[in-house]
Design goal:
Helix content is 48%, strand content 14%. Strands 1, 2, 3, 4, 5, 6 and 7 form a seven-stranded antiparallel sheet that branches. It is elongated. The mean pLDDT is 91.
């Protein structure tokens, strides 16, 4: 039933004649378990220890005889990986493959109105034969014509994701997309696991205030107050009116007993937030600072 795309690899800007990530593990699919098998494949390629049998308990929904995309992403995070959803385009897919990154994709082998869903892992392409290479179902090395693959993938909205070790970056990373993926991992509560991702983000985007703010919050959650203070101050160097960073830095200073320094940071933020949605939160911060004990001046001079 699947229609075909008219796009060819040569037209899409495939940079190499042939790419094959041969070291990608293979887990043959059992009935309706293409999701667990594909997920185990990309997790294994990232160095995580996961089997389809274990993952099936996490992602397989018996009533649907399959797995939902959100469940796959959540399961990747539970195995301490950043689940980075790619831009839905062929060039984005090609760049990851050329970067040595296998890509989990969703395909629709039916019609848009009568879908037949399938998960597979793309491990390469052959430009001369205009074909993609996949770990798919019970096929360890399936060669699928590009027009055939792209037809099935595009009818699944070109959805794809990669599983990254924290600290590794996609081939062509987008700052917002990457930081959102890192934050989703951190939301599980293990702040230490995601720290390398935020450190990689500030190296990749040193002028990005969101990256520095995320790193600062992460370090504060780990009790690394000095490092968090440095990161908050970097946010404010880049964006002096960034109210959340001012608020968090003021609280951090107050916790160290540096009330005068905390108030000096907070007051400009309170003026900027007056009448806005953050005004009440900053008022709470002010009350917290005013009720906190003060340290000796020598302690605060270090700040």
């Amino acid at each position: 039933l699947a229609g075909c795309s008219t796009q060819r690899l040569t037209d899409a800007g495939a940079a190499q004649a042939r790419v094959e990530i041969a070291a990608t593990p293979f887990f043959p699919q059992t009935d309706h378990h293409c999701g667990p098998a594909a997920l185990a494949t990309v997790l294994g390629a990232s160095g995580a220890d996961a089997s389809p049998e274990v993952l099936a308990h996490e992602v397989y929904i018996k009533g649907r005889k399959g797995s939902l995309q959100l469940e796959l992403l959540a399961a990747a995070r539970r195995h301490d990986r950043i689940a980075y959803v790619l831009e839905p385009s062929l060039p984005a897919l090609l760049r990851e493959l050329e970067h040595g990154q296998p890509v989990l994709v969703l395909q629709n082998f039916g019609l848009s109105s009568l879908p037949l869903w399938h998960y597979a892992v793309v491990i390469g392409y052959d430009r001369e034969h205009d074909a993609f290479l996949l770990r798919s179902g019970r096929h360890e090395r399936q060669q699928l014509a590009a027009r055939r693959f792209l037809g099935t993938w595009q009818r699944a909205d070109s959805w794809a994701f990669i599983a990254l070790r924290p600290g590794a970056l996609p081939a062509d990373p987008d700052a917002v997309r990457y930081l959102e993926a890192a934050a989703a991992l951190e939301a599980l509560g293990n702040h230490a696991v995601v720290t390398p991702a935020y450190e990689a983000a500030v190296r990749e985007w040193p002028a990005d205030t969101l990256a520095w703010f995320a790193l600062a919050n992460n370090q504060q959650a780990l009790g690394q107050d000095a490092a968090a203070e440095t990161a908050y101050r970097q946010v404010l160097r880049l964006a002096p009116t960034q109210i959340p960073a001012s608020n968090n830095l003021a609280l951090l200073l107050a916790q160290s007993g540096c009330k005068t320094e905390a108030l000096a940071v907070l007051e400009p933020a309170r003026a900027a937030a007056a009448g806005g949605p953050l005004a009440a939160e900053l008022a709470d911060t002010l009350r917290t600072i005013e009720s906190s004990p003060a340290s000796a001046p020598a302690v605060c001079n270090a700040h």
